[in-house]
Amino acid sequence: MSAYFYLCCKNCEISLYLGKKIASEETSLTLQGVYLEENKAWNNDARAWKVIQRFLQDHEMHELLFASDEHFPEVHLYESANTDELLSK
Ligand SMILES: [Zn+2]
């Protein structure tokens, strides 16, 4: 079973979905990135960084948690961050 990873804000109960860990020969974690409706695809480029950065700034000083739904199943009760909206901010 593969786990799905999220950046979660525990204060706002909102999460940013970062997809699955991509199989790689390296041991480091490679995530799918940020999914955008704009191009209906996973993005792992400057747009993904902008979305993540926006999310971090919106939740400055909040309790953030990076976790998979395997270890933090409560994430399924959280609202999902709108990535396209974050990108356009
Ligand atoms: Zn927050």
Give the secondary structure arrangement, pairings included.
Elements: E1 4-9, E2 14-20, E3 34-36, E4 41-43, H1 46-58, E5 64-68, E6 79-80, H2 83-88
Parallel strand pairs: 2-6
Antiparallel strand pairs: 1-2, 1-5, 3-4
Zinc ion binds at residues 9, 11-12, 59, 62.
Describe this structure as you would to a colleague.
With 89 residues, the chain is an alpha+beta fold. The protein has a domain at 33-43 and 63-89. It contains two helices and six strands. The strands form two sheets. It has a four-stranded mixed β-sheet, with no helix packed on it. It has a two-stranded antiparallel sheet with strand order 3-4. The mean pLDDT is 93. Bound molecules: zinc ion (ZN). Zinc ion binds at residues 9, 11-12, 59, 62.
Entry keywords:
89 residues, alpha+beta, four-stranded mixed β-sheet, two-stranded antiparallel sheet, binds zinc ion
